[in-house]
Amino acid sequence: MAHGFVRATADTDITANPEMRNLERLAAVLAGLDAVLPGADPLAGDPASARSLSYGGNPRFETKLGRLHIVQSPAGAPDYDGLAASAIEVDLDDLKIRVCAYPDLVAMKEATRRDQDLVDLVALREARDETS
Directed axis angle between helix 102-112 and helix 115-127, to 10°? Predict the structure, then answer.
């Protein structure tokens, strides 16, 4: 939405600062959201712990507020510091959130090559009048 194209999705994607202190805060948020990882091996430990999150990957949690996809290494994107440096700030119901910059969003969608992402790219470019 921040880049001019609105499409409802089934989850919220975030990229988190990979420093352990931040992952500990993220784990606390996940606990507060009663996050579970469908299909996770119960013998492998808590998939929402800071330690588990520190291994990387892209877990998709079910929470009491909906699905939360933690994308730690987005295809086509710079590392977390690069994403953070170019992110834009948007106001969402009096809550300021950071959103990836348009060039990073385009690069990620181009890198995945999923059908829906290719459709989204057309709509994003049309919203910015980049079709000519």
Answer: 150
Neighbours of 23 (CB within 10 A): 20
Query: Is the whole model's pTM more than 0.90, yes or no?
Result: no
Other Cβ atoms closer than 10 A to 20: 12
Q: What number of residues does the chain have?
A: 132
Give me the phi and psi of 59, to 5 degrees please. -65, 145
User: Reduced to 3 states, what is the DSSP secondary structure of residue 12?
Assistant: strand
- Give the pLDDT of residue 45: 84
> CA-CA distance, 41 to 27, in Å (whole number)?
18
Residue 130: beta bridge partners?
Answer: none
3-class secondary-structure state, position 93: coil
Other C-beta atoms lying within 10 Å of the C-beta of residue 24: 14
pLDDT tens for 58-72 read 999 999 999 999 998
Short-list 74, 65, 59, CA closest to 27: 59
Instruction: For strands 66-70 and 11-14, give the pairing.
Output: parallel
